[in-house]
Amino acid sequence: MLTVWGATYSVYSRVLRLALLEKGIAHDWVEVDVFGDAADQAAQHARHPFGKIPTLDHDGFALYETGPCLRYLEGAFDGPALLPADPRTRARAEQIAAIADNYGYSAMVWGLFVEMISKPRDAEEPDQEVVREAFAQARIILDTIEALSGDGPDEALAGDAVSHADLFLAPVMAYFVCVPPARAMLTGYPKLSRWWQAWAERPSMTATRSPLEGT
Q1: What is the pLDDT of residues 55-93, one digit of tens each?
Q2: In the Cβ-directed half-sphere of 66, how many Cα atoms lie within 13 Å?
């Protein structure tokens, strides 16, 4: 039995859910709210020392942090491989995933979506300096991933099939394109535009849609 705790609004929970759906792994999903519900927060701290999401438990084997969780699924379950076998292509997939993780999440989600969408929705003023810096960082991120992307199918940034590169970037991009000027920025990147069009309509993405998209 595989149980996963996470939130539908969470980028990293969605990364893990995408992997589960792409590999066709049966699991129990438990929704937790680590930003609002005190009981959920306390329970999640018992599963993760820093109270973060997602976490999983597979027949008594508890694991947290999204990257290790994805690599565990890759080794412990059947289904389509989500990392290329070729060492160089695999390294490229992991490199793109790391860019989305280390730089994309902070700039494209917190710096742009939160500042320009979430804050105004909650009657708060965005921090224009944060926004300015986030747009500059987003430009570097898009430039870099566009250049690193291979010539495979539209839905695959690295190699010939979906990989961790796509899983890490897609939930970030889903929030990024909610920001009108960010969505306009994306049109300047042909590979990434085709990739996002393929991913926006992919069944695993539509099945894990965040309730914050479109708000």
Answers
A1: 999 999 999 999 999 999 999 999 999 999 999 999 999
A2: 25
pTM across the whole model: 0.96
Kindly write down the DSSP assignment for every residue of 72-114, as one continuous string: HHHHHS-SS-SS-SSHHHHHHHHHHHHHIIIIIIIIIIIIIII
Check residue 215 and give its pLDDT.
55
Positive or negative torsion for Cα 51, 57, 61, 65? negative
Query: What does the CA dihedral 113, 157, 15, 92 come to, rounded to 10 degrees?
Result: -110
From-to residues of CATH 3.40.30.10 in the chain: 2-76
Q: Which residue intervals of the chain bear CATH 1.20.1050.10?
A: 87-207
CATH for the stretch 87-207: 1.20.1050.10
The domain 2-76: what is its CATH number? Answer: 3.40.30.10
